[in-house]
Amino acid sequence: MKILAVDDDPDFLTLFESTLTRLGYANVTFVTSGAEALELLSNTQVPFDCFILDIQMPEMNGIELCEEIRAIPEYEETPIVMNTILADRAHIDQAFAAGATDYLTKPIDEIEINTRLGVLHTLVRERLRTQHAINHGGADVFATPSYRFADQIPMRRVAGTIEYLALENYLKTLGVFRALSTKAVGFHVLNGQQLFDEAGPSIFSEVMIDVATCISDCLKTSSRMISYAGKGDFVCLLSRVEALDAFELGDTLRISIAEFGHIYDELNIHLPMVSVGPAVGCKALHMAAPTRILDEAILNARSAARHFTGFSQSMDR
Questions:
Q1: Model confidence pTM above 0.90
Q2: CB-CB neighbours of 221 under 10 Å
Q3: If 0-12 CB within 10 Å is exposed, 13-18 middle and 19+ buried, where does residue 77 land?
Q4: Which of 183, 187, 274, 174 is nearest to 229 (CA)?
């Protein structure tokens, strides 16, 4: 895995280099500023697979650099890890809103960074295998990637969306006590499998992006993080004090989706049918794993799907 690490503290970079080398990450480039990092990206021939960014840097901080990297099409989905002494909620929120995949705090915890980079390394390998299959299978390299039904389709172009892995990492970074101020709401596309089977992966991914757009529009006054979990499931994190009625939201969402009706009719595609489950707040029972509220919210949405008369579909995840 080819890594670019950016930190304005040369002493830290020296220590960090030794740590990464011990962990088996030898293909790492170190620079001391955002400007240097962007110049390197514009000139490199082989793209980087992962970025590790400090936040507190002069001229361009790590959050601003994260936004600049995400604006480069080649790096829209590349893992970006923030590695900083800043552990307050405001910087955590800003970092993930800018496109961070994970957030670690200094000083370096060798076990933790090895675990987190291991997850990202697996993700990078999977994406490289997919790209290799496209390149060597006769498909158009510039075509929409071919997703499986269970895949977590990227939706970065939709306002308020975040990758599912990043959403999980956000909750882990908050910790259970700060996560107590959040709640999760799940959404389930009842006819998702049917849409996937009939329309194919490329069109299905666009339909899910339409659903995400409608969810975002219906929650546009809220501070929200929306993620696609695969298999027609969405989950959204909201402030716990945010008033939300699942039945009312479901009705509003279905009206919004119905506006795509004439377009879908022309393409001979069924409209997605979406159920909304009751919100799940983070409680003491989530102490060991605050990310459980995401699974529970999705299960609630799937349970709510049973209220759709005349619709029968397997609810196995």
A1: no
A2: 7
A3: middle
A4: 187
